[in-house]
Design a protein that fits this description.
Strand order of the largest sheet: 1-5-4
Number of strands: 5
Distance between the termini: 40 Å
Largest sheet: 3 strands, antiparallel
Length: 176
């Protein structure tokens, strides 16, 4: 999804890069910095489509329901940021519900304990991902970067639980 957003907003990404006038050596360093930021951006995209959103500096929030963006750094990768609220983006939450369905379908044949362990492992993995993709940059203006750990995990785990719960209900109804 992040790759698609980069392609769709390539003009904006290019304009930010041109406005920086990095030169050859600076351009290589800027490309390297953007490549290093890709995993964080992927988690931010997941947070956006789960509904919780992400921060790009102190006092900012970009989510489908809330859009407040102040001064942001001139990082070309940030050219993919949405320009306004977009509640239709919550359709992306279906992806996480689908993960819950698959989690239940793949782990339940081995027993409920396997399903529970898989669910706990998924939750722990989300906590680690959110922790690694959040934090702060050098200045106080960039004090909040990335996802809110607890909001992201709670939202995604809830969406996965909905998919798994519906699958459990359907499977138990069929076996009864």
């Amino acid at each position: 999804m992040l790759f698609a957003l980069i392609l769709l907003n390539f003009g904006q990404v290019k304009n930010i890069t041109i406005s920086l006038q990095p030169g050859i050596f600076g351009g290589i360093l800027l490309l390297f910095l953007n490549i290093l930021y890709l995993p964080n951006a992927a988690v931010a995209v997941a947070a956006y489509f789960s509904g919780t959103g992400f921060a790009v500096g102190a006092g900012t929030l970009v989510s489908p329901y809330w859009y407040h963006l102040g001064q942001i750094p001139a990082l070309p990768l940030l050219g993919v940021l949405p320009t306004s609220r977009a509640p239709i983006a919550l359709v992306g939450a279906i992806f996480f519900v689908g993960i819950g369905v698959l989690l239940a379908l793949w782990s339940l044949p081995s027993g409920f304990q396997t399903f529970l362990q898989s669910f706990i492992f998924t939750t722990a993995s989300l906590v680690i991902l959110a922790y690694c993709a959040s934090g702060s940059l050098i200045t106080s203006e960039m004090g909040a970067m990335g996802v809110s750990i607890w909001k992201f995990v709670l939202s995604v785990v809830g969406e996965i639980a909905i998919g798994a719960g519906v699958t459990l209900a359907v499977k138990s109804r069929k076996s009864a």
